[in-house]
Amino acid sequence: CGAGDRYVMAFEIFGPPEECGVRFTMQFAESTDLLRWRRIENCAYSKERYTACPALRFL
C-alpha cells in the first residue's frame, strides 16, 4: 500500500511465541522501491489474539 514516499506491507507470522504471542500475528514492513523491505520494529497486531489474513487498503 502506498504511504507517501514509501510502501507498507502487512504479513503474518506464527512464531516464535516471544515475537507473535498468539499464532498468526500481523507484522509490518516498509520499502521505498518495492524490492528491499525493512520490518518495522515493535509494530504488530495483535499479540493477544488470532489475527490472520492481513490486508491494507488505500482509501
UniProtKB/TrEMBL annotation:
Listed name of the protein: Uncharacterized protein
Organism: marine sediment metagenome
Lineage: unclassified sequences, metagenomes, ecological metagenomes
